[in-house]
Structures are given as structure tokens and as C-alpha cells.
Design a protein that fits this description.
Shape: elongated
Distance between the termini: 117 Å
Structural class: alpha/beta
Number of helices: 9
Radius of gyration: 40 Å
Strand content: 35-45%
Number of strands: 36
Largest sheet: 12 strands, mixed
Length: 556
Amino acid sequence: MICLLTKRFKTKNINATIKKFALENDCSPLEFTFNINGVETYLKNVSQKDFLLYTEDIFDYFNNHQKMINEHVEIKQIFLITIKQTPKNIIKLDYSIEFSPNKDSVHIVLYPESQIPYKKYQPKEIYLLLLKELNNIKALNNILINIFDNEMKEKLKQFVKYIYAGKFIKKIKIPLYIGIEPDITRESRLLFRFLNKKSNHQVIEVAEDEILVEFIKPLFGKNGFNAFGEIIDNFYLKNIDDLKYNVDENSIKIIENSDRKIYKSKLKGYVHLDDKNFYVDNKIEIESLSRVQNRIAKDESNNIEVIISQHDTSLDSLGEGVELTSETININGHVGAKSTLRAVNLTIDGATHQDSYQEAKFANINRHKGKLRCHDAKIKLLEGGEVHATNVDIQNSLSGTIYAENVTIHQVKNNLKIYASNSITIDIVSGEDNLFKINYKDIPTLISKYNYLSQEIEDLKYKLEGAKKHSPLKVPALKEKIDELKVAQDKITTSSMNAKIIIKNSFRGLNTIIFTLNNNEELIFKTEATTYEPFYIVESQEYLTLHPTNKKIAKG
């Protein structure tokens, strides 16, 4: 074997030493191998606080496990090595290393892809070459060598026979280190309690003072000894399975005692857990939300803002079948089929699918094809969608249906149906076959409101009858309340008498204007390609006339 660069070192970190030596010689660390020429073992225990070189028979000492545990032995090793730059290793192992949970035992898994030239060497030579390679691997991983390795040597001898029998055709596991296993009467457990909500959640909403994570500490019956020369006791293990994240103290509080450690939310919001950080925030931003995660919040009044940003325009930000509820929702993409959104403030920068549903107090939508219920709606393009609202403001409409008290649209093309109770205001009607109708009975929200007022009036009438007999002083207030509710009802039922339809520019074709009276009689007018003054009802002694037309109905 040709050695280009060779140097001896004394080190406790072989990896770092090789990297430094390679750097000093403008080489890659992969070009170097090493031989272990000797090992110095340093020991400390209850009687000596500092690590001292142990020069006696190390094997006799470590065969007495109980003595090691009783004396709280700890070990460190320093290696005397020779680093060599070589073009090729004799043996090249393909392997992975498996540590037990407490690191008290270590195994190496060897794969058949390993390069072991057993046909060129005698079995004893292969055994020694493999033993050297395994010790090198242990030293590189800071695993103690020449200690607790009897099982490794026995298994390695069997493995050599296995090789020469031509049976190394599948992976094989060899113990590198078998230390002293601790006797734990109760295993530690890390419980991510907030994940219990995750079956139907992609992101998880939590309440203020809710337990997010609970770490239950282990209880020991007997200590152990691990592969790094450390005693395994309650101090070693008490936090070994604890959270390995940066915990935000502004949003999460930690409560700890000798038995457990609890992480609680300081505020209501969403849990954020990534590779490094753990915190709660009332704003969450994700690329997309899919059906398998379903609903991610329970109510609208939660002071939480959800931002869904899908930059791939071919994909929906909100996937098919998703149900999302939050106080504020901002979607920077499209909304998929059969999805449901509920919010106080809703913004959709993309398009809503025709089979989607949105519910909000204030909605701002770029392209609407689905079904929307809200108080105030602002839509850039109504494209066949359905809108139920108090007030609607639309830039352009291709088609669709609107049920509202007040509707304002910049430009209408074809096949739009508007059912309003108070006003319809349009700048341009450039198409045909549009319906502009004033009739509160066509608006489900107003019918619901009317029925609600009726029920309230009936309840108050019942209370009024009781007050007349038992509490006469309450009678005037109850009558006043009943009168107020009747006025509100009358305002709904007579809304067509005060309603207006305003088309600011000339019609360009045939469209229909309808005003429906409370008795269901209708004033219907078909437009021509001309300009009209505002449409509204003029009442005389004998007729109700639709201005500016000659359509009229005799008063009954």
C-alpha cells in the first residue's frame, strides 16, 4: 500500500484531527485513513473528582459491573493514532450504526455491498482487518474501545466463517458495545398533547393555558453505563427525551417539578413546530390546505389570522373538501371544490370553485364562482357565482346570481340575475338577458329576518299579557319594543316602494326590470337599447307607476 502523507497524533477527537491535517495539506479528509497505535483510558469515580490515567488491568475492573455502578465510574479515552494518506483501503464497509435508547448498547449493521477481499487473505487475517476496522469506526463515533467488546469479538469470528462460506448475501448485525443497561421502573415519556387534535387538522388551534407538551421523567431502580463512558442515572436521563426545540417564552410557559415538565400555551392561537422552533402565534401562513386536514379552527371570533399562499397557479391553495374557520383568512390562490370557508374577514386573491362555499362578515374576492354569504361583499369578477349579502360591490360580472339589499356593479355582461330589496346601481350593462328585480321575498336573509322579528313580537306579546296582570309598570316598555319591531317588519315589506334601480349608461339590448309589491303584483319592464332615468315606483291616488315607464298597477 502506498502512503503519500503520514503523521502520528495523540487525540480524543479523531474526526477533527483528520480534518485539520487534511486542511493543512490542501487535501480532502476522505483521502486519509488511520491506525490506532494505542489507547489511554482515563477514569474518575466517587473517590476522585478528576479523570486520571488508569494503568492497572482494565478488564478485571470492568468485569465487576456492580462495583462500577456503586463507584459512579466515568471514562474518557485518548487515542494514539497514525494518519495516512492512502489511495485505497483493503476493506471498505457499507454500514449503519444503531444505538439503544439509553446508548448502553451499540450495534453495527453490515451490508452485502461491503468490499471484503476474503479470497486474497486467510480467515485470521480477515478477522484482524475487520477487528481493526470496527475499532476505528467505534473510535470515530466516540464509542469506548477495548471495553465491553467480548460479544463483538465473538460475533465477528462467526461473521468471518459466514463470509468464507459465501453466505454474506444479506445484512448482518454485530454488537460493537454492550454496556450496563439501567433498570428503569418508569420510562420517560414525551407527550405531544396538542397533536391529539391532528387527526382532522393540518395546523392546530389551542386555547390559552392549554397543555401543549408534557414530559414525564423516568424513575430508576438501578443505574447503567453507556457507550461514551457515562453513568446512566436520573441526572443523565431526566432530560434525554425532553423537547429539543427552541421554546418561545413569550407564547409558551414551562412548569417543572421533580416528576414532570409541562409546556403550556400563554395565548390562544396556532401551534408552530418546525425543525428548531416551538411557539404559538395568532397568525399562520401555509402553502396549501388539503382535505385530509379538514377543519383547522372552531369559531370565527378567535383573533386568529390564517394566510394560505400557494405560488403554483396550477394548484389550489385550499384543496377539495376543506373546511376552514377563523377570524381572518387570506388565501393567495384558488379555492377548491366542496370546500367551506367561514371568517369575519375573508380575502381570496384567486378564484372560488363553483362547488365551494364561503361565509364571512366582510369578503373580498378576486374571481367568484362559488356560493358566498356575507354582510359586505367586494368582488372583482363575478363568474357564475352566487352571492347572498347585505351590500354587494362588483367590478365586472359575466353571469351569476345576487341576493342582497344593496347592489353596486361597474359593468354587467350577460345572464346576471339580481334580487334586491333597496337599490341596484350599475354603470354599464353591455349585454342582454339580465334580470334586475326588486323583491324582498326573493332574498332568503330578509325572509329569515322577517320571521325572526315575528317570533320576537309573539314572545313580547306573551310577556305583555303577563305584565298586564302581574307587572303593569313593564307594559309601556314592552308595547314600545313591539312597535319598534313592527316598524322594522314594515320597512322590509314596503321596501319596494322606496327602492331604486339606476343604470347610468345606455342599455345595449333586451334586459328585464321588475318591481314586486307586497301583495305579489309585479311591475315588469323590458329594456331597449337606450338610456333610462332611474327606475322607482311613483304612488298616486289611483295607481302605482314604474318610473320612467308607463307600466302601472291600480291600487287596490
